[in-house]
Amino acid sequence: MSRLPDQDPTTLEDYISIDAEVLTSAPLTDEEIVASVQCRGIDDSEGEEEETDETTCVPNILPSSAMQAVACLRNFVLQQQNSQDMLRHINRLETFVEDVTTNSCRQATITEFFTKK
Q1: pLDDT band at residue 13, thresholds of 50, 70 and 90?
Q2: Domain contains 11
Q3: CA 45, 51, 55, 57: dihedral to nearest 10 degrees?
Q4: Which residue segment(s) compose the domain that 67 sits in?
Q5: Tell me: the pLDDT tens digits for 36-88?
Q6: Distances 34 to 16, 25, 49, 50, 113 between C-alpha atoms, Å
Q7: Where are the extended beta strands (E) located within the chain?
Q8: Which domain of life is it from (predicted)?
Q9: Distance (Å, whole) CA 91 – CA 77
Q10: CA distances from 106 to 63, 64, 87, 98, 103 (A)
Q11: DSSP state of 81
Q12: Would you say residue 80 lies in a domain?
């Protein structure tokens, strides 16, 4: 079975390896691989592959940084006139960040607690 049927001069090995040298995608650099892994959490609901650029990645923000941003917003709003309604929204936002911080905490196990650091 080294030849294909119907007297075709192409061998089976030639037929199987005909596309071996065709590039199906561009080779990725290390930076592109890291960016694609970091952006994995972004929802791609249509399943379309789009070029990943660094502006589409949303970095993880620590709760402490979020609280600093809320404090900055509070200071800005306090400098404005008639800002009572906005202060209520900022208070709700601060409560949300505190809840996220509390929910992300994990109690140490007994062995972790007594392990010398």
Answers
A1: confident
A2: no
A3: 50
A4: 63-114
A5: 777 665 545 444 555 555 556 677 888 889 999 999 999 999 998 888 899 99
A6: 34, 17, 16, 16, 34
A7: none
A8: Eukaryota
A9: 12
A10: 15, 16, 31, 15, 8
A11: S
A12: yes
Amino acid in the structure at residue 88: R
Residues 6 or more apart from 94 whose CB is under 8 A from it?
Answer: 67, 70, 74
For 16, the token pair is: 């199987």
What band does 32 get if pLDDT is binned at 50, 70 and 90? confident
Tell me whether residue 31 is in a domain: no
| Contacts of 87 by beta carbon, 8 Å cutoff, 6+ apart | 74, 77, 78
Handedness of CA 94, 95, 98, 103 (dihedral sign): negative
Q: How far apart are CA 91 and CA 114, in angstroms?
A: 38
Number of neighbours of residue 20 by Cβ within 10 angstroms:
6
Residue type, 63: P
pTM: 0.45
